[in-house]
Design brief:
single chain; 385 residues; alpha+beta; four-stranded antiparallel β-sheet
């Protein structure tokens, strides 16, 4: 059995992006249209730039699939770039603050920021969304739902004092509310507010960040590990979300609030489960966000990520010329006013990828039947515990 891994390749304005996934069990039915739907969601959102009017992302499977079923061999997915003009684009002589331009040039010795930005670009996340869509399909087959939505844009949070009010328990209602939102949010009252702050930022030549949340429902307890710090699911999910360009903060459950509260208001009591429950234990609260000691508790896993404003500003920022060292305005690349809605889709994808890693570590097998057997065996153990 090969451990689940993936790797992406490609540049923002190169011919294509691709991802190779290894460790998928054989016998999994893969819906390519569903992958395309996730790619389309990544391109949506109020405040996106002109690039999204050019690209129409679609996935092409190059290997690892026959008759719509995975073979157990590496799965290769390709997303073509329509705006494949990397050889015609001018050099970036003045690095953009907030991007990888200057640090990357200093690392590799480049005098052209384009040699860095083409790979550092968030365009790469299209390949990860394709891979994440595969991961979400695998998890869905075991009753696990990975769902992301936007909580804040430009410092404008929900007016509700209780964030749980935003969480609609019906899966159909959740998806319908998000699909109807130009920001991938669940609170219709915020649509007008968010539209206004984005329009104002656009007039000023500025940009906006925000916060999105990923919730994972249906996870069995015990995924992850406490044996090694790096194997804790908290670490792995945190690393996955921080791997998204522009993510500057990640929190689970109560998050940073735990540093301001007494323990009695932070930890989740353990109580006997009601008779109808398949388990012997219950949790009346979920302040930990579904993770304790680096392991899933069986409660919904709740993680939020803060995205900084896009650093490509039409109003310009101070920089220097890489060749002469003289002061110069930073090169302006076509960009979004905000891409928090898109980031939420990427967050959903990378969270699913991190979860599939630990899921297959626990229940792995060469075929989907073997994974199913291991999953059911553990479910029996939990009922007896």
């Amino acid at each position: 059995m090969t451990r689940f891994t993936f790797r992406t390749a490609g540049e923002s304005h190169g011919s294509a992006l691709c991802v190779i996934i290894e460790g998928l069990p054989a016998g999994m039915c893969l819906d390519l249209d569903a992958i395309d739907a996730d790619l389309a969601r990544r391109q949506e959102g109020y405040g996106r730039g002109g690039r999204m009017k050019i690209e129409r992302d679609r996935v092409e499977c190059l290997s690892g699939l026959k008759g719509g079923m995975t073979l157990g061999s590496p799965l290769t997915l390709l997303v073509q770039n329509k705006d494949a003009v990397i050889e015609q684009l001018p050099p970036v002589e003045a690095p953009r603050p907030g991007h990888a331009d200057l640090a990357g040039c200093m690392k590799y010795g480049h005098r052209d920021g384009r040699a860095v930005l083409e790979r550092a670009s968030a365009r790469e996340t299209a390949a990860r969304v394709a891979a994440g869509a595969v991961a979400r399909q695998l998890l869905a087959g075991f009753g696990v739902e990975v769902f992301a939505h936007v909580l804040e844009v430009g410092g404008q949070p929900s007016p509700s004092p209780d964030p749980e009010v935003l969480w609609v328990r019906s899966s159909g209602q959740r998806h319908a509310l998000r699909a109807a939102s130009a920001f991938h949010g669940l609170d219709p009252a915020l649509e007008e507010v968010w539209t206004h702050v984005v329009d104002e930022a656009k007039k000023e030549g500025d940009s906006l960040g925000g916060i999105f949340e990923v919730r994972i429902l249906g996870l069995p307890p015990g995924l992850g590990s406490y044996q090694s710090g790096l194997d804790r699911l908290t670490s792995r999910l945190g690393a996955a979300l921080f791997s998204i360009p522009a993510i500057k903060g990640v929190e689970f459950g109560l998050g940073f609030a735990v540093g301001r509260l007494p323990g009695s208001q932070v930890h989740d009591p353990i109580t006997p489960a009601p008779p109808e429950s398949p388990r012997r234990f219950a949790r009346p609260s979920n302040r930990c966000g579904g993770l304790e000691g680096g392991l899933t508790t069986g409660e919904p896993l709740v993680v939020r990520a803060a995205m900084k404003p896009i650093p490509s500003l039409r109003q310009g920022m101070a920089s220097v010329d890489l060749e002469s060292g003289e002061a110069k305005q930073a090169t302006y690349q076509r960009s979004d006013v905000t891409s928090v809605p898109a980031a939420s889709v990427v967050g959903e994808a990378v969270a699913a990828l991190a979860l599939v890693e630990v899921f297959l570590d626990k229940y792995g097998g060469d075929s989907l039947d073997q994974v199913q057997a291991a999953f059911e065996f553990h479910a029996e153990q939990l009922r007896a515990l």
